[in-house]
Design brief:
This protein is of the alpha+beta class. Helix content is 25%, strand content 30%. Strands 1, 2, 3, 4, 5 and 6 form a 6-stranded mixed beta sheet that branches. The model has no long low-confidence stretch (mean pLDDT 84).
Length: 181
């Protein structure tokens, strides 16, 4: 039986996925988010671009471990630059890893491992986008939902402070009961 500890990764080939958005301007700001990217650096550049009048759209993309960081960048941008239209597309991207035996004399073969990893592309635009496009979100369409959720959450916290929760102890959070026998 052979395990991966006998191999070392020698090459990773990421197959480029085709552009998910057609009719984008050639000079669009394309923010490629990587796992090691610093959000502060990405957003400093991206916000400066979007706050200029000449830039109308920006594209964020990331794959694998960078998907959540890409979403975070998009959400920050939507909070800082109001009124942005959004189209989100999620795909799988294929990568191929080449693994070679650490000790070639042992007779192990070179391995090729193909994996599909998730990828996300988010187009943000100051101008209206096609509302029929799958993944479209209108500007601010979830603000009302967030406000309602926050209102319900704060009402729930008030009820807990008034005593409607578990336990009936009057002695506080860490009160100990003493029993006398």
């Amino acid at each position: 039986m052979c395990t991966m500890e006998n191999y070392k990764k020698t090459k990773v080939v990421e197959k480029p996925f085709p552009s998910l958005f057609t009719d984008l301007p050639q000079d669009i700001t394309d923010m490629k988010v990587k796992d090691g990217s610093k959000i502060r650096n990405l957003m400093g550049y991206a916000i400066a671009k979007m706050e200029s009048d000449s830039v109308r759209q920006i594209l964020f993309s990331g794959s694998g471990k960078a998907v959540s960081k890409t979403i975070t960048c998009v959400e920050i941008m939507k909070r800082r630059v109001k009124g942005l239209h959004q189209i989100t597309k999620v795909v799988f991207r294929q990568i191929e890893e080449m693994w070679e035996p650490i000790v070639p004399e042992v007779g192990l073969d070179t391995l090729s491992v193909k994996r599909n990893i998730p990828a996300i592309c988010v187009l943000l635009s100051k101008d209206a986008l096609n509302t029929q496009e799958p993944g479209y979100q209108a500007p601010g369409c979830f603000d009302a939902l967030w406000l309602q959720a926050l209102k319900e959450e704060s009402q729930g916290q008030k009820k807990r402070k008034q005593g409607g929760g578990r336990g009936g102890s009057k002695g506080g959070k860490h009160a100990r009961s003493t029993k006398h026998f």
